[in-house]
Specification:
The protein is built from no helices and seven strands. By secondary structure, it is mainly β.
Amino acid sequence: MDTSHASPIGRLGYLTVASRGEAGPGEVVVPIRGGSETFTAYSAVPLPKDQQVYVVEDLGGREVTVVAWGERQDPLLML
């Protein structure tokens, strides 16, 4: 199966760099295409590092729009 054009839209990821809402993007890691990839993450409101997020829009050029998904999780509990 060719996954080279798989879309990040609808996938869950987590922020490795907090987003600052309108003040600037963060960074999200998303499991995609058989691995994990990093995207620049824009959000309407500031979101903290390690926040689980849902990708709602692909802006092209490895940039996506995300929204918070669920509660913030302690990264040690994710190990």
